[in-house]
Amino acid sequence: MRLHGVARYGSATMALLATLLASAATQTVRAEDGPIILTLTDDKFTPAEITVPAGRPFTLKVINQTAAAAEFEAQDLKIEKVMPANSDITVTVRAMEAGKYLFVNEYKEDTVKGYVVVK
Amino acid sequence: MIAALIIVFREVLEAGLIVGIVAAVTRGLAHNRQWIGGGVLAGVIGSCVVAAFVGTLAATFGGSGHEIFDASILAVAVVMLAWHNIWMARHGRIMAAELKAAGQAVVSGSSTMFGLAVVVAVAVLREGSEVVLFLTGIAVSQSVSGLSMIAGGLFGLILGAIASSLTYSGLLVVPARYLFTVTSLLIAFLAAGMAAQAVALLEQGGIIDFLSSTVWNTSHILPDGSIPGRVLHTLLGYSDRPSVMQLLVYLVTIGTILLLMRVLAPRSAPKARAA
Fold first, then answer.
1. Burial (0-12, 13-18, 19+ Cβ within 10 Å), B177
2. Which of B205, B229, B211 is nearest to B219 (CA)?
3. Do B209 and A92 touch (CB under 8 A)?
4. A92 and B214 in contact by Cβ < 8 A?
5. Which of the two residues, A104 and B137, has the higher pLDDT score?
6. Up-side HSE of residue B187: CA atoms within 13 Å toward CB?
7. How far is A98 from chain B (nearest CA, A)?
8. Helix, strand, coil percent values for chain B (each to nearest 5)
9. Residue B273 falls within a domain, yes or no?
10. Is residue B269 part of a domain?
11. Considering its fold, how many domains does chain B have in total?
């Protein structure tokens, strides 16, 4: 009885894995260009809006020029990273479909924000 | 002040849910309060250490040091949760019978308590370091509203603790004969969610760059950032835009835990075994 259960779980899992892998096999696209650079100051990001091509991963380099730690967050891009004071961070964003995606300094999210426009 | 309250509350909510679940799962085990308290304390101390060294951490491994660190401690938590479930599958039903017979706290179980204390410490550390950095950033900027922001932050912490005790009380409502199954499932989902989170971190750090396409987009139905979204994210590992790799790891984690629980449970398990 126990072996039947194992066989059931095992084959179901393998079938699911095979389906997922097959569907994703042709979709590997790697980020190739250099990072897009954002600068964070006490009251804003510069630039406040950047444009990237759809369907290609990209990297963002965010330079924190303030004396306090900040948190770079872009929920729709699935990015969240703490930025130490006076330093920079780099994050990789997956290929996104067309749209306008918000990013913020989470510690000041009402006022310090910008957009990534994907076309 | 409200802004600070919301920021801190959102951070501690996830840790609060995990503490509540662990507290409910370990109810009746000897010294569980000390173990959980120890885990929280270790997490708080760890948060301060991480916050102090966050610059160094960010700079290692080509800039992905923080992501690798977070993913690693999450992986440890996943193993601890899996171990707890397997341990309970082997000993839990016997323990539950002993509890009823003896009517008192069971002394055994300190090894699984250590594992759960580690899980608590990891959860508190991950969120706590962000809270510490947020609050010290306010102190550094020496703004006029600084004091009210710190007060807001403290209220956010209190709200998080309330969420934690609500989770605990809510779980205690479950009738005793279902408690084992319910908590085992909760812990399995918790582990799978953490494993998927670890993958997301490694994707952000550029370390996993394959199988990264988005499987579904439910951000218009239930966004990750909303409070219900965050609760489901912690409890079930829900994501409004999971990648293929995240979904894969999630399914493999849950499947492996449930499989190992079945396979390693003692042959002479009492007839309480669910069909």
1. exposed
2. B229
3. yes
4. no
5. A104
6. 35
7. 13
8. 75, 0, 20
9. no
10. no
11. 1
Chain A nearest-CA residue for B202: A92
Domain borders along chain A are 36-118
Tokens of B227: 């409070």
Give A64 to chain B, closest Cα distance, Å. Answer: 12
Preceding peptide of A47 cis, ω within 30°: yes
Q: Identify the residue among B143, B209, B249 best suited for mutation to test binding to A, counting A beta carbons within 10 A and taking the highest.
A: B209
Using a CB-CB distance cutoff of 8 angstroms, which residues of chain A are in contact with residue B204? 78-81, 91-92
Which amino acid type is present at position B86? I
CATH no., domain A36-118: 2.60.40.420
pLDDT in tens, B72-100: 999 999 999 999 999 888 876 666 666 55
CA distance B225 to chain A (A): 7
Q: What is the pTM of this model?
A: 0.86
Q: In terms of residue numbers, what domain contains B137?
A: 2-264
The residues in A 4-63 lying below 8 A from B, measured between CB atoms, are: 5-6, 9-10, 13, 16-17, 20-21, 23-24, 27-28, 30-31, 42, 57, 59
Nearest alpha carbon to residue B212 among B223, B202, B226, B224? B202
Nearest CA in chain B to A42: B141
Is residue B258 domain-resident? yes
- The structure tokens listed for B267 are 């042959």
In a domain, B170, yes or no: yes
pLDDT tens digits along B232-267: 999 999 999 999 999 999 999 999 999 999 998 877
Contacts of B125 in chain A (CB under 8 A): none
Amino acid at B13: L
Q: Cα separation of B80 and B195, whole Å? A: 12
